[in-house]
Amino acid sequence: MSTATKPSALTFDLHGRCSTSKARASTLQLPHGAVELPMFMPVATQASLKGLTPEQLEETGCRLCLNNTYHLGLKPGQAVLDTIGGAHKLQGWNYNILTDSGGFQMVSLLKLAKITEEGVRFLSPHDGSPMLLTPEHSMSLQNSIGSDIMMQLDDVIQTTSPDRARMKEAMERSIRWLDRCIVAHKYPESQNLFCIIQGGLNLEMRRQCCLEMVKRDTPGIAIGGLSGGEAKTDFCKVVDTCTSLFPEKKPRYVMGIGYPEDIVVAVALGADMFDCVWPTRTARFGNAITACGVLNLKHARYAEDFGPVEEGCSCTCCRAKQDGGLGVSRAYIYHLAAKETVGAHLLTMHNVHHLLSLMGRIRTAILEDRYPAFCKDFFVKYFESQPPPEWAVDALKGVGIDI
Ligand SMILES: [Zn+2]
Description:
Elements: E1 11-17, E2 24-30, E3 33-37, E4 39-42, H1 54-59, E5 64-67, H2 69-84, H3 87-91, E6 96-99, H4 103-109, E7 114-115, E8 120-123, E9 130-133, H5 135-145, E10 149-151, H6 164-184, E11 192-197, H7 203-215, E12 220-223, H8 232-245, E13 252-254, H9 260-268, E14 273-276, H10 278-283, E15 287-290, E16 293-296, H11 330-337, H12 341-367, H13 371-382, H14 390-398
Parallel strand pairs: 4-14, 5-6, 6-10, 10-11, 11-12, 12-13, 13-14
Antiparallel strand pairs: 1-2, 2-3, 7-8, 8-9, 15-16
Helix pairs in contact: 2-5, 5-6, 6-7, 7-8, 8-14, 9-13, 11-12
Bound molecules: zinc ion (ZN).
Residues 309-310, 313, 315, 317-318, 350, 353 line the site of zinc ion.
């Protein structure tokens, strides 16, 4: 029997497991350096995190960010990416990049997108000419981008869709498209292709998809199609079902998740990687993510609050001047929020840093085998005066954690 495995550009080292829940702590060695899991990946759609320079993003501690294949494919375009040598060089980012397949943006942004077995057909937003994104084209674009982690093209439909036949078709087509992606991927020794499990909220379909895709032995595995308006209880069931079918020694990525409470629960259910535009988007609305919940600093109650955005936070925005930070106060953000974009930039810095430092605390708690106590403490603080949401209580109870 052959023991040869498919080429892969990553190594995955599992360091610790929670003795109660399914939480794990590991290190993922990627072409542009190591990242520690569980981790949150900020989204830099246009090869830039809105409001932050690459240096500022580096300062937040981020070592893996997301770029958007669809946007980069349109502008600067594949020819420019090939000339310059990929997205790392384009944006002056020496750490890791993950790219989506480009499919999701087409389906979500372009009402006229049509999905056939061949690929996703749509009209160019520039000149209205017909275009087709196939699994082969998605791989070719991501090869030109040079991302450390590339995602397969999948057939995504809203999880809440009642059309069971269409859901099944999308799940099965995603498996066929994965096979085409594997064949088309030119650099498996230097770029990692992740498969994406589909199947909506139907656990049997998710199981089938897991069994088929795990056989394909991709370097990492993602759970897709969630965060589309489904009930949190359903979301948890899907994550729990899928992680139970995944091999232990591969990174597990739940796409589109960014609320701290969702991440804390998904980690307990055995997930390792998350991404979401929410922490950066909400910063632009004046919202600061803190351990005590989300604060809207546009509120007049902060007009004379001269404390930092979050007490004890070590981000560049919150850190005192004498400690090399900017020493920004809530009152200053309140003052800026209404009229100056710099307020949004400062909060983006804080929010990304907050999420990354939350992930660091989660990791330490798992390594020290006190994740159940961490969860309890997190929910008490984050929901302050209110009881924790019922879906979280139930999901955590399912893996042995009482909060
Ligand atoms: Zn801060």
